[in-house]
């Protein structure tokens, strides 16, 4: 079975967040399961592209409205990621360093999708499934079915996975002419709330859509940034498949990015050594419990709650707790979190920016990982933290609810709280500190956490079952 994954991100080629982790791992596990899975993503001018060799497998000319675009499809020569990787390069439009946030982002992602379809169409390929991830490839199902330019591809079933329903990629109808030769009687499929909405279009045009956890599937009907009614009426097409984690990349026993490697057998010494290295770097006292946060500093992650919650906890438990923050995003939150590090230098540190290796070191060295998310479609951080024996403190929502149980409940291993609020965060910090004082219980919980299995094997086969179901129905 030939499957193409379309995504704006893929680890380690280009990563902004969890989308990259999933698209870097799922195809690899699918290949291991006997599926001929490949990734086709935009080209970025990044370390990965400089350090790897590529062959040009296709060159074409296409149109974006009246603008003529030359494009190339590059294939990574040695399939070093464990699957075939194709990069769509459009000089002057898709060949830049950043993944998001350019003023012509709409043009970039539409051109990426058109160039991909042109390539598949003109090169005579007929994949069995085209698996689109988030709105950046959300127009592909519509274009395959309702553009005269891609009639040959009309029977290829699309699968659409929602990693984040808050972002839709919506744009104005005056850009409709970017879409090549479409059936104008079908434009209702593109519409939502007066705009052209790629996320909505993908949901409408796919036989099935998936969400990255079962709980998030339910939540979209009441929290999806304006698409609630759509998800309500299309609920019967939705399937929740919990993400896995790449247990080769995220393995404390082999992780080359951490100070000391460890398995369950030497968890106490292993974590202690990693904590010592981390605390030394940030001038924190190793003997105190270390609560960390890693993530994008946005409202979805509850990041705006952190400055007050950290400050209140630092005062409430003066000299008894350390906090470490790794993240970037909203500038006000960044400034507030940086200001705290001057005021509470002995017990709090912030690294504003993105640092993959440091993230690994924090999962390994912290005692607790805080995730006060308002919205969390799945969340990978809590699964990484469990794998590294670091107790997750999570708001009970979306995938966090599906993966973390409270240690106060029978067989539980994390800390859960109900509200994305400063009060609930501070209360769970207090609970964490009491638990930290009970060394035997913490040790037991760490062993339980590290023994949990969140690997991709199970989820990858759920996707394959879905592909088979779609193919046999089509
Ligand atoms: N400053 C920083 N430095 C280094 N590493 C950093 C970092 N900030 C974040 N990261 C890393 O980025 C990833 C974040 O993944 P998440 O799944 O938690 O969130 P994200 O919201 O990006 O993904 C969306 O898609 C994924 C995948 O489906 C869903 O799990 C999730 O709920 C959804 O919001 C982790 O690998 C984390 O370590």
From TrEMBL:
It catalyses: [(1->4)-alpha-D-glucosyl](n) + ADP-alpha-D-glucose = [(1->4)-alpha-D-glucosyl](n+1) + ADP + H(+). Gene3D superfamilies: Glycogen Phosphorylase B. One of its GO terms (molecular function) is alpha-1,4-glucan glucosyltransferase (UDP-glucose donor) activity. Residues 2-229 form the Starch synthase catalytic domain. CDD domains: GT5_Glycogen_synthase_DULL1-like. ADP-alpha-D-glucose binds at residue 15. It holds the Pfam family Glyco_transf_5. Belongs to the glycosyltransferase 1 family. Bacterial/plant glycogen synthase subfamily. This is Glycogen synthase. It comes from Mucilaginibacter limnophilus.
């Amino acid at each position: 079975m030939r499957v193409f994954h379309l995504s704006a991100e893929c680890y380690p080629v280009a990563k902004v967040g969890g989308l990259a982790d999933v698209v870097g791992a799922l195809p690899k596990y699918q290949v291991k399961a006997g599926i001929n899975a490949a990734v086709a993503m935009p080209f970025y001018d990044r370390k990965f592209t400089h350090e790897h060799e590529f062959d040009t497998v296709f060159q074409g000319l296409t149109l974006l409205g009246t603008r003529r675009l030359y494009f190339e499809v590059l294939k990574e020569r040695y399939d070093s990621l464990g699957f075939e990787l194709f990069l769509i390069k459009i000089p002057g439009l898709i060949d830049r360093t950043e993944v998001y946030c350019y003023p012509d982002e709409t043009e970039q992602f539409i051109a990426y999708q058109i160039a991909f379809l042109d390539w598949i169409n003109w090169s005579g390929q007929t994949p069995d499934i085209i698996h689109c991830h988030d709105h950046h490839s959300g127009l592909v199902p519509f274009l395959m079915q309702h553009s005269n330019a891609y009639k040959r591809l009309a029977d290829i079933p699309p699968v659409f996975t929602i990693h984040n329903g808050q972002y839709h990629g919506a744009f104005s109808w005056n850009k409709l002419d970017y879409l090549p030769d479409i059936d104008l009687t079908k434009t209702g499929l593109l519409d939502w709330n007066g705009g052209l909405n790629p996320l909505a279009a993908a949901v409408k045009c796919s036989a099935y859509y998936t969400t990255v956890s079962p709980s998030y599937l339910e939540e979209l009907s009441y929290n999806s940034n304006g698409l609630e009614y759509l998800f309500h009426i299309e609920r019967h097409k939705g399937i929740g498949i919990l993400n896995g984690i790449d247990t080769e990349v995220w393995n404390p026993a082999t992780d080359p990015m951490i100070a000391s490697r460890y398995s369950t057998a030497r968890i106490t010494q292993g974590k202690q050594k990693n904590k010592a290295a981390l605390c030394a770097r940030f001038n924190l006292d190793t003997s105190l419990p270390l609560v960390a946060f890693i993530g994008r500093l946005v409202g979805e992650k509850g990041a705006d709650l952190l400055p007050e919650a950290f400050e209140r906890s630092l005062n409430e438990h003066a000299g008894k707790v350390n906090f470490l923050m790794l993240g970037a995003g909203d500038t006000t939150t960044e400034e507030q979190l940086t200001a705290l590090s001057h005021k509470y230098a002995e017990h709090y540190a912030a690294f504003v920016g993105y640092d993959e290796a440091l993230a690994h070191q924090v999962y390994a060295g912290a005692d607790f990982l805080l995730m006060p998310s308002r919205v969390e479609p799945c969340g990978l951080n809590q699964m990484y933290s469990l794998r590294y024996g670091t107790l997750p403190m999570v708001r009970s929502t979306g995938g966090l609810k599906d993966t973390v149980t409270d240690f106060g409940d029978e067989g539980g291993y994390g800390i859960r709280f109900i509200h994305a609020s400063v009060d609930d965060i501070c209360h769970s910090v207090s609970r964490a500190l009491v638990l930290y004082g009970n060394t035997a219980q913490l040790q037991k919980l760490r062993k339980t956490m590290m023994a949990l299995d969140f690997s991709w094997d199970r989820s990858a086969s759920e996707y394959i079952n879905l592909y088979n179901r779609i193919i046999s129905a089509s």
